[in-house]
Amino acid sequence: MLVQQILKSKGDAPVITIRKDVPIAEAANLLAERRIGGLIVSKDGKAVQGILSERDIVRSLALRGAVCLKETAADLMTRNPVSCTTDETTDSVLQKMTAGRFRHMPVVDDGVLVGIVTIGDVVKARLEELAMEKDALQGMIMGH
Ligand code: AMP
Hints:
- The chain is an alpha+beta fold and 144 residues long.
- It contains six helices and six strands, in the order αβαββααβαββα.
- Helix content is 47%, strand content 17%.
- Helix 5 (90-100) packs across helix 6 (119-142).
- The chain is elongated.
- The protein starts with a helix and ends with a helix.
- The mean pLDDT is 95.
């Protein structure tokens, strides 16, 4: 299965992005409000500058306390995150996520942000694919 199929199944909801100068307290509110775990940092919604995950915020809170809430996305984000393209396979994305130990991946075609996939999206897609393969094999064995 390809990344473009995952994006299609999620609907064409726009990716939520924030600018580098957004305070961490505001970013945390957005994560909670939208019930998501990561925000793409971009100045124009097209070029990906970084990714800010709930983990970045929790780690900073634990290490340095509430002072980090006044800092900005630029201070805590991971710069130049690993991305994928719409024609990449779910297996390839899963491998990159597992190797890099992260759960979010921006989807970028020709330098333009077109979506985001999470490990949950990829695992769901892979399970559906395996269930279909199982049904097809069962059908072949049973002769229908
Ligand atoms: P996550 O598991 O996605 O919540 O993120 C765990 C850590 O990896 C955080 O420090 C993120 O900023 C970072 N991270 C998240 N997504 C990516 C990515 N696609 N490429 C590189 N680092 C990432």
